[in-house]
Amino acid sequence: MSEENKFNIKVNPKKPSKEEIRKKMDFEGAYTAYTHKAYRSSRAGFNRHSFRNRKTSMFIILAIVIGVLVFVENEKEFDAQNNDSSAITKDSLNNDTTFIKK
Amino acid sequence: MNSYYCKANTLGKKLTKQKDKISEEQLILSAKKDRKNFKHLYNKYYERIFLFILRRSENEDLAQELTQQTFIKAMLNIEKFEFKGFPFSSWLYRIGLNELNLFYRDNKKRRCISLDQTELPELTEELPEEVNPNFTNENLIKALNVLSEGEVTLLEMKYFEKRSHQEISEILGITVANAKVKLHRVIKKMRDKMVDIL
After folding, report:
1. B72 at A interface, C-beta within 8 A
2. A101: helix, coil or strand?
3. Residue B87 exposed, middle or buried by CB count within 10 Å (0-12, 13-18, 19+)
């Protein structure tokens, strides 16, 4: 952004009168919005603080993704170990001739 | 006799101030119990908050929307408000300022600044003498461009809205000393820029 247009400057802006402001503002509107479900649900609460929650939610998502990846990797390793033909089984131990019985 | 009246007057003013504080505290407590009672606080402050937001926003419609949003947020979070010696208005101003910042950040728009010729003399007094004769709106706008949004907010509050250091510190949630130091730095930055321009 160039130095010339960093801010939008209003020179001598018109100030509304008290009456004009009174007409624009009404408590009932604000109260209705306050009681609306959009503000009352927990999801809305989370969205309202989305900026503050963004880091936390990203961390949670990241943790879930890493957790799933680790789990999948472990499953693969476990499967590979179980299907390994060279792995020692109970039967192979019993048939092992080099095994010295007391 | 005169001094007696003077003392009585001062005492009366003090009592009225105390009464105001008590009534505000009561209003807040009643609003905490039932949000419908927030109406009294709304009616007391909507004009000030509207004007505060209007001078920082593009138009009246946007100011109206952000002011309503400010009061909705205040109603939602009034439970968190505690009496720490700060007036309730400061808390509302802070919510309003946050709403404005949120709006400009989300919409990627340029921040608005209102310059009123009648509000400028106090600011020009702070500038060096060699700058004063050549002080124009264009030069001021160029000088404002070197400031950050936070610095502009400080400048607006002090010189355009004529707020005290105490009030500024309450709105921004900083100490009075910190507010003074920050303002001093802002003025120095502007002075340097003005001298550069000339």
Report:
1. yes
2. coil
3. middle
**Radius of gyration over alpha carbons of chain A, in Å?**
34
Question: What is this model's ipTM?
Answer: 0.70
| Nearest to A2, CA basis, from B99, B30, B142, B188 | B142
* Cβ within 8 Å, pair A10-B115: yes
Q: Where are the beta strands (DSSP E) in B63-140?
A: 111-115
Q: Is the minimum CB–CB distance between A37 and chain B shorter than 8 Å?
A: no
CA of B14 vs chain A CAs: smallest distance (Å): 28
* pTM as predicted: 0.71
Task: For B7-152, list the strands marked E by DSSP.
Answer: 111-115
- Give mean pLDDT, residues A72-90: 77
Put simply, the chain B residues between 32 and 51 with a CB less than 8 A from any chain A CB are: 35-36, 38-39, 42-43, 46-47, 50-51
Q: How far apart are CA B48 and CA B41, in angstroms?
A: 12
Give me the count of residues in chain B: 198
